[in-house]
Specification:
single chain; alpha/beta; 5 helices
Length: 219
């Protein structure tokens, strides 16, 4: 399976608490719910497209608890997202969560080395192992070079504080844009699909003047 990270971000890269003021108040965050005024049928269609590719889910403990407290209550049979989340295999990374506490079935708690566990899961048959939310987990997966594709919906909002998708200190990387699934939606939300092209190094260059002409030179 491919490992995909699917998330909502603001213009300043914040991914914390997009859907509800009380979704994630860790660190004193008090600006939750910033996505909701910009949600539309267009953004819903993009997100449903993400979930159509899912054959399993990987969560950090916090996101597992948040999503597991909401989606099992959504029982309408034609809700694609609820159906996928409530029926497909789920894996949650935690050293403290018990099997009894992981009662959003079917769920397996991963307690061994994260990198080894994820590599094992990626060898299983299926289309995608998807990560949604799970800020700390995403950092670890990025640092280990395990993410195959990032899907972002970037909203025309500056949150100003909170957990950022790529915070200071993140391993530098270069991405290739998947053009056919990257576009601006009505209302200004940007849908981006990115595939890592290199990890640990950035391409660089310079603008110079050569015989009176502005020229780019790649290093």
């Amino acid at each position: 399976m491919l490992l995909s990270v699917n998330t909502f971000v603001s213009l300043d890269g914040v991914m914390q608490g997009p859907g509800n003021p009380d979704e994630d108040r860790s660190g004193g965050f008090d600006r939750g719910g910033w996505l909701v005024p910009h949600a539309s049928t267009h953004t819903n269609e993009v997100v449903e497209g993400w979930f159509r590719e899912a054959d399993a889910f990987l969560f950090g403990r916090t996101s597992f608890g948040l999503l597991g407290g909401y989606w099992p209550k959504v029982t309408e049979p034609d809700n694609l997202i609820a159906t996928k989340l409530n029926t497909l295999p789920k894996y949650v990374v935690s050293s403290t969560l018990t099997d009894d506490e992981a009662d959003w079935r079917p769920t397996t708690v991963l307690r061994a080395d994260l990198v080894d566990e994820v590599r094992r899961l990626k060898e299983l048959p299926g289309k995608e192992l998807q990560v949604h939310g799970s800020w700390r987990l995403v950092q670890a997966l990025h640092q280990a070079g395990l993410v195959d594709v990032y899907r972002l919906l970037q909203y025309p909002v500056i949150v100003g504080t909170g957990k950022r998708l790529f915070p200071d200190g993140t391993t530098p990387a270069t991405f290739a844009t998947v053009e056919e699934s990257s576009h601006v939606l009505p209302g200004g939300v940007v849908s981006l699909t990115l595939k890592p092209a290199s990890l640990g190094a950035l391409s660089a260059g310079a603008y110079t003047v050569d015989e009176g002409r502005s020229t780019t030179v790649l290093n």
